[in-house]
Design the sequence.
C-alpha cells in the first residue's frame, strides 16, 4: 500500500542521538520506509537535558539537509522530549520543537515509572494553555501504565494523547507488551501508531506489518485512523479525533 502511511516518530537525523549515525544510514532508512508505503516522516531526535541538547534550530537545519540529500522526500522537523517539570518554564511555545512546527509535542516518560499524577496534570495544563497538544510516546513500554492502564485514562481526560510503537504490535518487545498495546487500542487510548525507528535493520521505519495486525483485530478503518489519517492530521496541525 505505497504512499498511505505517515510516521510521526522516527530517529532518522544523523548524529543527533542514538538513531541514524550517518547520512548514508539515514538515507537507507528512508529507502526502507518508502518501500513499506510511508509517504512522509517526522524526524524526532531525543531532547534530554545534558545528554542530547538538541535545539529547535539544530533539528530544523538537520531536517532540511537530509531532505535535500534525498531529493525532497517529505521529512518534517520534530523531537522526542524527555519530560521535565519546567518544560514550559525555561522555554515558551515558540521555542519548543513541535511536530512539524505545528501543535503536537512528542513527550517521553521514564521507562520505569512516571512523575506524580499531580505533576503530570500540571504540565499538561501548562502545555494546553499555550495551545500545545501533549502526545506521549510508547505508553505500552512504560512500567507504570503496564501496571495500571487507568493512569492513561486520567491523563487523557487532562488533554493527553498517546502514540504506540509499531514493533510493540508485531511482538518485538514481548508478548506482554503486545497484549497490553492491543488492550490500549481496544479501550480507545491509542491515538496514533509510529515506528520509533532507530536504524534500517534492527529497528526499521516499517509500519505495514503492524497495520495488517491492527486491521485484522479492529478492522481496516480503525487501522487507517491510527496509521494514515491521524498522523497526517498531526503533521498538518489538525486535531486528533
Sequence:
Amino acid at each position: 500500500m505505497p504512499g498511505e502511511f505517515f510516521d510521526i516518530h522516527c530517529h532518522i537525523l544523523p548524529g543527533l542521538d542514538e538513531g541514524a549515525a550517518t547520512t548514508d544510514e539515514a538515507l537507507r532508512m528512508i529507502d526502507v520506509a518508502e518501500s513499506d508505503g510511508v509517504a512522509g516522516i517526522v524526524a524526532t531526535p531525543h531532547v534530554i537535558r545534558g545528554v542530547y541538547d538538541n535545539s529547535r534550530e539544530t533539528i530544523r537545519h538537520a531536517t532540511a539537509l537530509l531532505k535535500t540529500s534525498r531529493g525532497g522526500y517529505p521529512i518534517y522537523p520534530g523531537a522526542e522530549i524527555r519530560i521535565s517539570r519546567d518544560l514550559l518554564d525555561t522555554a515558551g511555545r515558540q521555542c519548543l520543537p513541535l511536530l512539524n512546527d505545528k501543535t503536537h509535542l512528542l513527550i517521553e516518560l521514564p521507562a520505569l515509572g512516571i512523575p506524580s499524577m499531580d505533576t503530570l496534570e500540571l504540565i499538561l495544563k501548562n502545555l494546553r494553555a499555550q495551545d500545545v497538544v501533549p502526545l506521549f510516546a510508547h505508553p505500552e513500554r512504560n512500567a507504570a501504565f503496564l501496571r495500571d492502564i487507568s493512569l492513561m485514562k486520567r491523563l487523557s481526560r487532562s488533554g493527553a494523547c498517546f502514540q504506540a510503537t509499531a514493533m510493540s504490535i508485531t511482538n518485538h518487545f514481548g508478548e506482554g507488551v503486545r497484549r497490553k498495546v492491543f488492550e490500549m487500542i481496544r479501550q480507545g487510548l491509542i491515538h496514533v501508531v509510529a515506528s520509533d525507528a532507530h536504524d534500517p535493520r534492527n529497528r526499521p521505519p516499517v509500519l505495514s506489518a503492524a497495520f495488517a495486525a491492527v486491521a485484522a483485530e479492529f478492522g481496516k478503518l480503525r487501522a487507517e485512523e491510527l496509521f494514515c489519517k491521524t498522523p497526517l492530521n498531526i503533521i498538518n496541525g489538525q486535531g486528533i479525533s
